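Today's session is about reading a structure prediction critically. Students often jump straight to the picture, but the first step is always the sequence itself: look for stretches that repeat, for charged clusters, for runs of hydrophobic residues. Only then move on to the predicted structure, which in these notes is written as discrete structure tokens rather than atom positions. Here is the chain we will use throughout the hour.
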Amino acid sequence: MFGLLGKKSGSLVGLDIGSSSVKLVALAKSGRKYELDAYAVVSLPPSAVIDGNIQDVAEVAATIEKAVKVAGGKMSTAVAAVPASAVITKRIPMSNVFTEFELEDQIKVEADQFIPYPLDEVSIDFEIIGPADHGDNLNDVLLVACRKSDVEPREDAISGGGLDCTVIDVDTYAVERTFPLLHEAAPDTTVGVVDIGAATLTLNVFKNAELIYSREQAFGGNDLTNTIHQQYGMSVEEVEQALRLDDLSDEIKEMVVLPFRSTVAQQVSRSLQFYYSSGAHNELSALYLSGGCAAMEGLADQLSEELGINTDLANPFQQMSVNPRINRPRLERDAPSLVKACGLAMRGLEG
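Below is the predicted structure for this chain, in token form.
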């Protein structure tokens, strides 16, 4: 089952299964407004997820089960995502006279021409975008394909964690879904969202709230975690907890965290250079930081100063009603790491 673009609804839980932790967000919806009901961030063992691939389904399942308990809600169904790097997408012009079943068969014929894997190893979904610009009686259809070996371990882990996986989305689509909650952009403005995760740094650029550019590079918070672990004898779990709670000693902050923060700033600047050199793109009017490293003290201010771009932390919950049981200061600190999970939960509430 690869419900990437299926018209399913009613799932309230978004699960972002990252390299270092599982992030869970449970949303409700009242009219057009979202409400944050519960959330959790639970660390994963270092070898459970590597390069976006689940290596230990049992460990991930146990972590998901713990996240559900930490969140404290009655949860049954979830939406998760695969990395964009694991997905093949293509827009195809198709006749608008096909019925849905006929279109599904025709899509498989088209997919066989450009997917470099046997079709029985691939999960395929599609969505009709609208009338094509280059021909009468044609619709543009977005075809999305992903290897089952990337999808099924997520389904198995979620099932093992006590939830029913109703939809597998794509992580960049989840970020795009949250963008209107992060920034109210004037027409034709260009805004960047940098996700600084445990293993990767991804720059997503939006114009008119639509994703126009995305680039991922191998760099992330694992470098910082491992350095502190090796130099100061703390376990990886202790380091990650201390980083999340801003509970490191002044010595570690000065000797390790501050130099790493400068390296992060250099990597973000490098990503922007790739973006500007990729074509005729407008300069960014604002930059938001998401991911587990985003809330590093002073990082947003340093980037604002060095890049000359107003930089702030991504917080998709700032306009939402929040369950009074949730610790608001902790939510403020954790919000940048919850962007993908929030977008996945929103997917579950789409009608």
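Discussion point for the tutorial: The first strand starts at residue 13 and ends at 17.
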